[in-house]
Amino acid sequence: MKNVNVLIDEKKLQARVKEIADEIRKEYNGKTITLICILKGSTFFTADLARYLYDQDVRLEFIRVSSYNEGTVSSGEIKMKLDLKDSLQGKDAIVVEDIIDTGRTLSYLIEYLKLKNPNSLKLCALLTKPSRRVCKVDADYIGFEVPDKFVVGYGLDCNEQYRNLPYIGYLED
Ligand code: IMP
Ligand code: MG
To answer: Quick check: CB of 125 below 6 Å from ligand 1?
Structure first.
């Protein structure tokens, strides 16, 4: 395994996830919340968010998309690999994503999910790399802004490795 430099340690990460959960609790005020976890990267974030919302009626949905990459450059073509299991009709849904990079994945997903007629649809991303943005994405909840480095941990991978780190780090080149 390569050496990983810590960018956001576990304590800071957990404190921010709890803060986001507190914001969501306040805004949804007792409504049933459907968290849409984008596999695989947002599994840890979704799980912790859901646990911090232990006193709310939280439901989970999973979606998996893939973008075709040529090296490190995304082609912008996105394919649905695993779709929602239940209807979103009339539900208050929050898309939970690990990181907004170019913004292509989320702008595609938001348009796709809007067609399912939820009562409301918000967007929550743990990380954002604004310097890399190609498609405009308006997130309602953001954990941290990160520099233009390839980050791993807390769900984020490099060739499927490092997802299980309890912190966010970056790889030494
Ligand atoms: P976007 O469509 O370019 O915004 O890409 C979003 C997806 O690319 C994320 O959901 C991640 O899976 C992946 N990604 C982008 N940047 C990173 C990174 O720094 N580390 C790990 N995965 C990343
Ligand atoms: Mg992802």
So the answer is: no
